[in-house]
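Throughout this review, each integer encodes one residue's backbone shape. One record appears below.

===
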Amino acid sequence: MTQRNLNRLSNLMLWLNFAAVLSIATQVLFISQYINQNQLSYQFLTRLKRIPASPTSIFWQCTIFSLALIFLITIRHQYHFSKKTNNLFVILEFIAAVCTFYAVRMNYNGMFLLVFVDFFMTTPDISSNAYYRFWTIVGGLLVLLFSVSSYSIIGSVFKMPALTTYISFIPTKMASFLVLLNNVFTAFNLILFISIMIGYAVHIANREHEIQLRLSEMSKSNQELKNYAALSEKIAQDRERKRIARDIHDTVGHALTGIAAGIDAVMVLIDIDPEAAKKQLSKVSSAVKQGLVDIRKTLNQIRPDALQNYTLEASLKKMLQEYSDISHLKINFNYQWGNVDFEKTTELVIFRVIEETVTNALRHGHASAIDVKCQIVNNNYQIKISNNGSTTDKLTPGYGLTQMKERVAIINGTMKIITSPVFTIIVNIPRKD
């Protein structure tokens, strides 16, 4: 059952209760006039245990209190209030229901089921575990109140005039019709209450099923995105390898080919014409130097832009700040190396190691805080990176960690991985005197 259909049923129940209360008030008013006109007042009073209130007063009390209840329920359906205001409206509705119950002189108690349904329909997160105890208490009290508010139980205690007593003074056919009408109101109200309860239970079950389906679809989409990201990363790596291989082929390959040809020529000329051999060696030397320049250019293209324009410390700060801004990751960066002048290869390795570690902490460890320390320990430049993400005792190094170890080994450094109590990577790079 949809929410719209539930709202329609609850609105129908609301106006049904208004009609039932107004019907009882009207019956009391007109039957009282009939009793007066037919001079049956004495017989009527002898059958009552207390003098009834004015029929007109009863009519207006029923009208005013039932309209107040309708107004409060309508307001709660139209607007979204805070929890505190919402609870205040529930209390006011309950008070209005009790006043209406008194106005009809306890001859109709369907308004308590109405308040129960309204509370049920407008309370947010009613299906969550946090509401179960509160729900059970409120529901139990309302059902108990509905059960004991029958006129046969409570009306006789407070000696209120029974509606059946009024009806017994009118002609039989009309009396039978009114009894049937009142029973229809009561039965129809109960049927609507049961229908709404069952419908809402079905609605909640369908909504939870839809949520489970959406979560399943999101999980599937998330897995597809991970696969796509891994594939994209693999493609990017392959493209980068091909580009680097092409650049090396165009620079180092051509340079080595020229050097090899020049050396072959020198080997031929060294015995025949030493002077020409010297000139050829000079050309080979120039080719070697130019090859070195080209290789440096190729390596600089691989170098991050941040390292091109900033110092190592400033580059690391800029890179870590970008990660923090994008992912809301809290990064504590402590740089104690001062103005040390590393080789470009060493700077590149340090930059890539820190970048890869932060990426892994965010992607695999789902960390929210990372500590990055660049300090000097035992004559080593030490990088210590810790994060508060998830960890495991059995760590299988993947492509990223393997690449990091290989990069660190290139600059004669060592890398250590600690998984407990927090995931930590320690890199030591020997200092050069």
